[in-house]
Amino acid sequence: MKDIISGLNKVFDSRVRLGIMSVLMVNDSVDFNTMKELLDVTDGNLASHLKALEKESVIEVRKQFVGRKPNTSYKVTPLGEKLFKEHIDALEKLINPL
Predict the structure, then answer these.
(1) Which domain CATH number covers 36?
(2) Number of domains, the chain
(3) Could you tell me which residues come within 8 angstroms of residue 9 by beta carbon, excluding any fewer than 6 positions away?
(4) How far is CA 16 from CA 28, 33, 65, 98, in A?
């Protein structure tokens, strides 16, 4: 029997990580507060998932100052784009195996 879940990437198992990647795939970059509002998660929860994705090199972090305020934004890396597209393709094959 063919392993129907072998194409899924464990990095994107969490609904929060799936949400983060979905947001970043359709935006050039997104700052922390916007991401938090879009996903309706706590600071700590979002920060831990972003750190995990950064560790896997699928997102990159940019820290800068806007005026006098620190601003952290995130964007998908080329590796992240490739791996996430493969994950979505695997999900589609799981849902519609024909």
Answers:
(1) 1.10.10.10
(2) 1
(3) 83, 84, 86, 87, 90
(4) 19, 15, 26, 29
- Model confidence, pTM: 0.89
Torsion angle in degrees (nearest 10) through CA of 75, 8, 79, 18: 0
Q: Whose structure tokens read 């800068």? A: 64
Contacts of 38 (CB under 8 A, 6+ apart): 19, 23, 30
Look up the domain containing 22 and give its range.
Answer: 10-95
The model's pLDDT over 20-48, given as tens digits with 9 standing for 90+, comes to 999 999 999 999 999 999 999 999 999 99
Q: Give the whole-angstrom CA distance, residue 41 versus residue 70.
A: 20
